[in-house]
Amino acid sequence: MKTLYFDCFSGISGDMVIGALIDAGADPNLLVDELKKLQIEDEYELKWKKVIKNGITSTKFDVLLLNKSIHIQSHDHNHDQSHDHNHDHNHDYNHDHNHAHGHSHDHEHNHDHSHSHNHDHDHHHHHDHRAYKDIVELIEGAGLDETVKETALKIFKRIGEAEGHIHGIPLEKVHFHEVGAVDSIIDIIGAAILIHQLEIDAIKSSPIPVGTGRIHIDHGIYPVPAPATLEILKGVPIDQSDIRAELTTPTGAAIVAVLAEEYCSIPSLKVTSIGYGAGTKTFKNHPNVLRVIIGEQ
């Protein structure tokens, strides 16, 4: 039985999941092609590159919003209160799809040796925001593999139900701001696509460290974990690490909460591949990466 284990010693986010899966051998070009079925490729740019996180070679995956002046920082990224200014020397291989003017603000000083591949698209159908029901329609109408579609819908429902519960509104009335919606759509559907491509039979995970401290969200200053993240993680074993930052984001929480069937230490496996997905934050004495271990059980 082919088993995937999420080793979340530094938490989990959507971009870390995609980065780790690519690093473990999933095909990023398949990801690009499958995501085109959504017909929203004029709204984003995908970038992935090799980076060094505290001595660990890992893959950094980013989603940039097109035709905007900001880098997508979404609900999955905008809680970063880390102020570490480490110097990472990265030899990067960037694969860019669409032209964008994104600006990363992760406080890493990267020395890049990059190779880019750009592909333009001329479709234009932007929206100021997307309702949960609109995202469901988008996924259902995309012609994705049935397993991929069902997985993505379950993950989005988990987020939508948590947001609805927190804000006291029914699921059908939950809205996602455009920036957050595009980021979450890519991370969630992308995770489903790559896990399906890797032909994983079972998924297990470590308990989820959430971090500590306080974060700024739209409704004020809250303790870590953010309200939506904690709601999503109901039923999931969590740890409050001593790292003063948000380690687990709502999208990452939803992906692992839906996919993992067991939370445990690393199971007995004949390991076939290992992947490291880099997070945005950089910590002085801690590699901020998600480790994925794949093997036969």
Question: Which properties best describe this structure?
Answer:
alpha/beta; two-stranded antiparallel ribbon; 13 strands
Give a verbal description of the structure.
The chain has helices spanning 14-23, 28-35, 74-77, 132-140, 146-167, 178-197, 227-232, 250-259, and strands at 2-7, 44-53, 56-65, 129-131, 175-177, 202-205, 208-209, 214-217, 220-223, 238-239, 262-263, 270-278, 289-296. It is an alpha/beta fold and 297 residues long. It has one domain. It has a five-stranded mixed β-sheet with strand order 11-6-1-13-12. A two-stranded antiparallel sheet has the order 2-3. Strand 2 and strand 3 (56-65) form a beta hairpin. Helix 1 packs across helix 8 (250-259) and helix 5 (146-167) packs antiparallel against helix 6.
Order of helices and strands: EHHEEHEHHEHEEEEHEHEEE
What's the total count of β strands?
A: 13
Helix content: 25-40%
Protein structure class: alpha/beta
What is the CA–CA distance across the termini? 5 Å
What about the largest sheet? 5 strands, mixed
On the 0 to 100 scale, the average pLDDT is 84
**Radius of gyration from the CA trace?**
18 Å
- Tell me the β content: 15-25%
- Contiguous uncertain segments of 5+ residues: 69-127
Spatial order of the strands forming the largest sheet: 11-6-1-13-12
**What number of domains?**
1
Helical stretch tally: 8
Shape: globular
